[in-house]
Each structure stands twice: as structure tokens, then as C-alpha cells.
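FAQ

Q: What does a record look like?
A: Structure on top, sequence underneath. For example:
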């Protein structure tokens, strides 16, 4: 029960997160990104289910094609006739090369047919995981200018500087929401390899997981800096010079 990801719960988690963001930051860009993430999560739920199940009709069609190839190959071999005088060295060599080339072509064709289902599933999974990777970068762009030092308003900004329109508490919630969205993206990517054991897709999903973890690490560094600044501002005497400090002279 707790050994695999539940796609329904992942979708429910993203849906709840979207409501939280909309309630805290109504009509914000981050809220719209989370709604897009919710749509992607629902699509991924259906895609992962499609990828994880066997497609019997396709397998039957492939089996029929392979059987036809085998029958044709057998009929070709059966129609061959031994020359009356037998094979000389040159003829035997040519016949051997022709037979080997035929086996190689037939083997390649059979291998192609056998791996059709896997390649179709792999292509769909890779395309979906690439969408998740792009969405992770979109989330990162939204938190890019949300720096803790802008809340304290220390220093003079420039005309192009982002406007500090969030309080310290709101900024922390904003960054936390971004981190939760990135974590959800990593979990959605993991759905594609839960029932599809393909090394290429597994590598792509792990790449997305590593990307989202790295981006979340940067966000939590900002949150730690913000919490430290809030703690210093809350403590009396921290960050401010007390009257008389440094005014005494030693003799």
C-alpha cells in the first residue's frame, strides 16, 4: 500500500496546493502556474497508466507479423535446390554470405517489431518528462527575484529593481509554495517509471528529480536567510547600534 506512488493523491495534493496559493495570492502568476501543473498532473496520471499497462492488440499484431516473416523465411529455404554438381568453394562462400545476410536482415526486422511497444511508450514518456522539466524552470523563474534582502529594504534600489510588494511572512509562504510545486513535479516524473522499467525513461525521470531538488535547495537557502533576518529584527538590540555604543574612549 505504501510501496508505490498513488497518482490520485498526487493530483489531490497539487489541487490543494493550487487552492492555497490562490487564497494567499489571488490571480497571481504563481497561482496560474500551479493550475497548469494541476492539468499536467492529471494528464500524467492518464499517460502513466497507459504506459504502464500491456497493449495486447499491438502485441498480437506484432506476433502475427513475426509469424508471417518466419513462414516466408521457411518457404524460401524450402524452395532452395542443391545444384546437380554440388557447390564449389566459391559458390559455397557466396551461399553462406547470402544466408548470413538474410538472417541478419530478418533478425533486425524481428527485433524492430518486438521493441515497437517499448519505443512507443518511451517516446511518450520522454516527451511528458521534458514538459515537466520545462515547468520546473518556469517555477524557478517565478522565485528568481524573490530575494530576502528586498524585504528589509536595506540599500537603495534602481528603477529596474523588483518592487518589494511582499512582507516577510508572505515571501516565506511564496518561496515555500514554489518548493512544494517543484517537489510535486519530481513526484509526477516518478510516475512514468513506476510501472515501466526502461533505463532511458528512468534516467530522464532521475534528471528531473535532481533538477527539482537542486532548485528547491536554492529556495530553502533563501528561506533560511529570511528566517535569520526576521529573528535578528525581532530580538532587541540586534541589527541596531545601541545608544552610547562605541562612544566611550579608553585612556
Amino acid at each position: 500500500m505504501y510501496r508505490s506512488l498513488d497518482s490520485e493523491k498526487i493530483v489531490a495534493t497539487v489541487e490543494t496546493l493550487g487552492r492555497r496559493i490562490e487564497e494567499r495570492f489571488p490571480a497571481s502568476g504563481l497561482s496560474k502556474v500551479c493550475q497548469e501543473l494541476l492539468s499536467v498532473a492529471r494528464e500524467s496520471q492518464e499517460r502513466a497508466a497507459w504506459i504502464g499497462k500491456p497493449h495486447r492488440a499491438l502485441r498480437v499484431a506484432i506476433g502475427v507479423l513475426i509469424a508471417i516473416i518466419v513462414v516466408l523465411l521457411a518457404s524460401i529455404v524450402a524452395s532452395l535446390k542443391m545444384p546437380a554438381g554440388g557447390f564449389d568453394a566459391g559458390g559455397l562462400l557466396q551461399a553462406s554470405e547470402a544466408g548470413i545476410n538474410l538472417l541478419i536482415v530478418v533478425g533486425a526486422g524481428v527485433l524492430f517489431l518486438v521493441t515497437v511497444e517499448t519505443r512507443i511508450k518511451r517516446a511518450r514518456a520522454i516527451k511528458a518528462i521534458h514538459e515537466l522539466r520545462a515547468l520546473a524552470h518556469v517555477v524557478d523563474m517565478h522565485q528568481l527575484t524573490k530575494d530576502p534582502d528586498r524585504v528589509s529594504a536595506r540599500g537603495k534600489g534602481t528603477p529596474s529593481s523588483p518592487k518589494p510588494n511582499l512582507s516577510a511572512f508572505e515571501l516565506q509562504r511564496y518561496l515555500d509554495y514554489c518548493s512544494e510545486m517543484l517537489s510535486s513535479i519530481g513526484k509526477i516524473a516518478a510516475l512514468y517509471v513506476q510501472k515501466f522499467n526502461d533505463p532511458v525513461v528512468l534516467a530522464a525521470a532521475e534528471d528531473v528529480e535532481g533538477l527539482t531538488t537542486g532548485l528547491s535547495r536554492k529556495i530553502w537557502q533563501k528561506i533560511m536567510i529570511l528566517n535569520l533576518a526576521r529573528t535578528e529584527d525581532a530580538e532587541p538590540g540586534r541589527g541596531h547600534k545601541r545608544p552610547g555604543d562605541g562612544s566611550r574612549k579608553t585612556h
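Q: Is there anything notable about this one?
A: Confidence is low (pLDDT under 50) at residues 240-251.
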